[in-house]
Design a protein that fits this description.
Blueprint lengths: L19 H10 L1 H16 L3 H7 L1 H8 L13 H27 L2 H20 L4 H29 L5 H26 L7 H7 L2 H13 L4 H6 L3 H12 L5 H15 L4 H4 L6 H16 L2 H6 L1 H7 L4 H25 L5 H26 L9 H19 L2 H12 L2 H33 L2 H20 L11 H4 L13
Helix pairs in contact: 1-7, 1-8, 2-7, 2-8, 2-10, 3-4, 5-6, 5-7, 5-22, 6-7, 6-9, 6-10, 7-8, 7-21, 7-22, 8-9, 8-18, 8-21, 15-21, 15-22, 17-18, 18-20, 19-20, 19-23, 21-22
GO molecular function: monosaccharide transmembrane transporter activity; symporter activity
Keywords: Membrane, Sugar transport, Symport, Transmembrane, Transmembrane helix, Transport
Subcellular location: Membrane
Length: 498
């Protein structure tokens, strides 16, 4: 049918109260997103600090001190500098497959604990770095932390949340990512002003705060009933289910979890079985969502916001200040998603955002194409403000759509038997393409110049077509009923089932 999705049949709604235990558990677990966002923001700001560049990337430092000799778009084009940012994501890509094993065998809670410890170790090494090797090893440890956290936290949130507010609670992860980016931008704005050239060390060191929050939080929260039952702790799983649902009669939901666990135990090789035809719809959707999420261009902006604004002619303080503004917009817009995702659904948010992102990127490309010359020092004030407004327009639409929903939809659509490996595939594909963008963006900016925004806007157009025709709606569908209520009802994906 037009639009790509036939409405689901009436769905089961299990009785559940919104209990303090669920809210507290979700808040504590979602600090894994705070940790991830903090690193994204910190690395972008630190790479624009002269003292950091002078110590670790002197070639880049010298280029940034020259005026009128090189294109605005090319001053930060350096493979070593890009490797500093992108090395984290290669480590996260590899770590997530180990995290899949710990998530399945040891539980979601212990996997989050491991993530916090890795991130703490990486933070210490980065803050104390005296050479590039120490810096990169620290980034690799941070990447392991990110890989484990991004594997466990979205699954934890989707499993512990009542169906009717599952979307909102899952988006707490992405909200914390945006808060982490905002705090990092504010911290960088302050530490850049510290005399003596050690401000970047403080920026890195403060990453210990979100890492400690996740570490302590993972010691406090209980594991999900799904995980406990999957690992054979039936009585404990039922007890936890009663506590998080706030009712005594949890038998219908409990029996469904037990049945899902029985099916999951029959899967002896989840890595192999996830390639089976019946698991293909959620697998393809999860992979494409991660690729599309990165090719919106969002991480190019978030990683390098201070560098980007400085490349576009903004002064040092102005570039960091502009990054703080975009960070604040990111946080506020994610709140829009928390409010609306379980009311108006996933698809409508994604489709609206594609229109907004496409238009804002085209406007940015036109302004830069006509008004920013290669060797001039800055844009006029009016056009500089317009660029910031358009960047904020782009960021806001991403923050209430492809950002949080890129994590939410995969975490709620895989059946229990492939949920852990499915989340690993989701995280690894995300990290692979995050690495690609992080490693290539500054070179792309140098060669494509303003055309880089046209490149990303073309991808946004493709994403809109994909969301319209191929993406089913999953709001208000119990997590263990996705196959019958979503995939078997979709005009295209139903052909993958007998």
């Amino acid at each position: 049918m037009a639009g790509g999705f036939a409405p689901a049949a009436s769905t089961t709604t299990f009785e559940a109260r919104i209990t303090p235990l669920v809210i507290i558990s979700c808040i504590l677990a979602s600090t894994g997103g705070l940790m991830f966002g903090f690193d994204v923001g910190i690395s972008g700001g630190v790479t624009s600090m002269p003292s950091f560049l002078e110590k670790f990337f002197p070639v880049v430092y010298r280029k940034t001190q020259q005026t009128g000799l090189e294109s605005n778009y090319c001053k930060y084009d350096n493979q070593g500098l890009q490797l500093f940012t992108s090395s984290l994501y290669i480590a996260a890509l590899i770590a997530t497959f180990f995290a899949s094993v710990t998530t399945r065998r040891l539980g979601r809670r212990l996997t989050m604990l491991i993530a916090g410890v890795f991130f703490l170790l990486g933070t210490v090494l980065n803050a104390a770095a005296v050479n590039l090797a120490m810096l990169i090893i620290g980034r690799l440890l941070l990447g392991c932390g990110v890989g484990f956290a991004n594997q466990a936290v979205p699954v934890f949130l989707s499993e512990i949340a009542p169906t009717r507010i599952r979307g909102a609670l899952n988006i707490l992860f992405q909200l914390n990512v945006t808060i982490g980016i905002l705090f990092a931008n504010i911290i960088n704005y302050g530490t850049a002003k510290i005399t003596g050239g050690w401000g970047w060390r403080l920026s890195f060191g403060l990453g210990g705060i979100p890492a400690s929050m996740l570490t302590i939080g993972s010691l406090i929260v209980t594991d999900t009933p799904n995980s406990l039952i999957e690992r054979g702790h039936l009585d404990e799983g039922k007890s936890v289910l009663r506590r998080i649902r706030g009712i005594e009669n949890v038998e219908p939901e409990y029996m469904e979890l037990v049945e899902a666990s029985r099916v999951a135990k029959a899967v002896k090789a989840p890595v192999k079985d996830i390639l089976l035809r019946k698991y293909r719809p959620p697998l393809v959707i999860a992979i494409l969502l991660q690729i599309f999420q990165q090719f919106t261009g969002i991480n190019a902006i978030m990683f390098y916001a201070p560098v980007l604004f400085r490349s576009l002619g903004f002064g040092g303080d102005a570039s960091l200040y502009s990054a703080v503004i975009t960070g604040a917009v990111n946080v506020l817009s994610t709140l829009v998603s928390i409010y609306s995702v379980d009311k108006i659904g996933r698809r409508l948010l994604l489709l609206e955002a594609c229109v907004q992102m496409f238009l804002s990127q085209v406007v940015i490309a036109i302004v830069l194409g006509f008004k920013l010359k290669d060797n001039t020092s800055d844009l006029s004030k009016g056009f500089a403000i317009l660029v910031v407004v358009m960047v904020c327009t782009f960021v806001s639409s991403f923050a209430w759509s492809w950002g949080p929903l890129g994590w939410l939809i995969p975490s709620e659509t895989f059946p229990l038997e492939t949920r852990s490996i499915g989340q690993s595939v989701t995280v690894s594909v995300n990290m692979l393409f995050t690495f690609v963008i992080a490693q290539a963006f500054l070179s792309m900016l140098c060669h494509l110049k303003y055309g880089i925004f046209l490149f990303f806007s073309a991808w946004v157009f493709i994403m809109g077509l994909f969301a319209f025709f191929m993406l089913p709606e999953t709001k208000n569908v119990p997590i263990e009923e996705m196959t019958d209520k979503v995939w078997r009802q979709h005009w295209y994906w139903k052909r993958f089932f007998d």
